[in-house]
Amino acid sequence: LKEKPLVLVKTLNTPKTIVNHVAELRGAVKSLSDDDKDIFYSLHIANPSLCSKNQGDTRNMGLFHTNAITLKQMDKTEGRILGAAVFPTISLINHSCAPNVAWSFNQGRNEAEVRVIREIS
Q1: Cα radius of gyration rounded to whole Å, the chain
Q2: Are 82 and 68 in contact (CB under 8 A)?
Q3: Which of 8, 62, 78, 80 has its CA 20 to 30 A from that of 107?
Q4: What is the pTM of this model?
Q5: 29-60 pLDDT tens trace
Q6: Alpha-carbon torsion, ordered 107, 89, 8, 76, to 10 deg
Q7: In sequence order, what are the residues at sequence separation of 6 or more whose Cβ sits closer than 8 angstroms to the Cβ of residue 42?
Q8: Three-state DSSP string of the chain
């Protein structure tokens, strides 16, 4: 499975960068097509009681941080964080302590790829 990010935010979410992180997320969601907005707003929120139902910053943050995957560029032994992204399908894959798939991100193609690494039952 290969797909491009629905929403990509390069600014990390830290106490020092939260304002810029929220602004970048707001802009990324605002620039989505109507169909892509429908996909984004249909995703699950881990704690919906903390997020409003309107399509504002609080809801965007809840959706993004529930579904985002941290993107790293691997360089032999170290990984440089490129940001975080929400993908239409890849973000729906559950975490596992004994995974049967592995995923990677190709920065040049702006595309994530999921590969099966052992039998899926």
Answers
A1: 15
A2: no
A3: 62
A4: 0.82
A5: 999 999 999 999 999 888 777 666 666 888 89
A6: -30
A7: none
A8: CEECCCEEECCCCCCCCHHHHHHHHHHHHHCCCHHHHHHHHCCCCCCHHHCCCCCCHHHHHHHHHHHCEEEEEEECCEEEEEEEEECCCHHHCCCCCCCCEEEEEECCCCEEEEEECCCCC
Separation between Cα atoms, residue 121 and residue 6, nearest integer Å: 29
The residue type of 17 is T
**Residue 91 and residue 103 in contact, taking contact as beta carbons nearer than 8 Å:** no
Terminal-residue alpha carbon distance, the chain: 18
Q: In this predicted model, what pLDDT tens digit does every residue of 77-98 receive, in sequence order?
A: 677 788 999 999 998 887 778 8
Q: Cα–Cα distances in Å, from 113 out to 44, 88, 89, 90, 118?
A: 22, 12, 11, 8, 16
Residues paired with residue 74 on neighbouring β-strands, in sequence order: 79
